[in-house]
Structure formats: structure tokens, C-alpha cells
Amino acid sequence: MKKTLILATLTLTASSLAFASGFKGPQNSGGFQGPSQGVSTVKEVRDSGMFSDENPVTLVGHIKGSLGGEKYTFVDETGEIVVEIDHDKWLGQNVTPETKVQLSGEIDKDLTDTRVDVDMVKLLP
């Protein structure tokens, strides 16, 4: 019985140490950091006849101004478009017209307008 208890304790200690030294957790988890499929410029969104509603979008540029509520004017080197950013997507980040940002989301088309529904706001250097 004593040998079994000692063996169990040693096994538990060894597995705990292995787990603790190898566990990275969500704060260290990564992902792909390269080009994505889908639309990547305002011009492509505006000319999105070839793209369907809800097509993925990743834009890099600047938020030029607020239009009230959750709507903003976004601009890149190809033009400007209205983007919709829900309050919870800001994640405490402060953005000015001079801040370069990457917006990820999807095309949101209706009968009279095309805009981008933003899922993620990322500050860029």
C-alpha cells in the first residue's frame, strides 16, 4: 500500500510538472498571420457585384469620422465607405483619424447601400 501511494504521488508530481512547463494557454495561442481570401480594399467592396453579401473583408486604412451610432467613415488608398462597428468590438481601444487600423468583417449589402459590418478592430503601427 505504501509503495502504491509513493508511486502515485511521484506519477502525479511528474505529470503536473510536465503539464505546467508545456502548457501555454490562450494568452500565447497564435494563428495565421498572412494574406486572407476575400476582399481587401474599399474599391473591391464598392465594386462587389462579383462578391456576395457576407463575403469576408479585411481592410487597412483609417477611420475618418463618426456618422453617429455605430456607423463610421473608413478610408483607404482606394476610396471611402461606411463601416458599422458594434460597441463591443472596440475592446477598449482608442482610435483617431490618424490611427492606422485593420478592420475584419463582412460585406453588408441591401437594396440601396453597401457597407462593411466589422467583427474585429486591430490597431496597426
From TrEMBL:
InterPro entries: BOBF_sf (IPR036700), CarO-like (IPR005220)
Taxonomy, superkingdom: Bacteria
SUPFAM superfamilies linked to this entry: Hypothetical protein YgiW
Signal peptide residues on this chain, from the entry's feature table: 1-20
UniProt keyword terms in alphabetical order: Signal
Listed Gene3D superfamilies: Bacterial OB-fold
One family name in Pfam for this protein: BOF
NCBIfam families registered for this protein in UniProt: stress_OB_fold
Protein name per the record: Protein YgiW
Originating species: Vibrio caribbeanicus ATCC BAA-2122
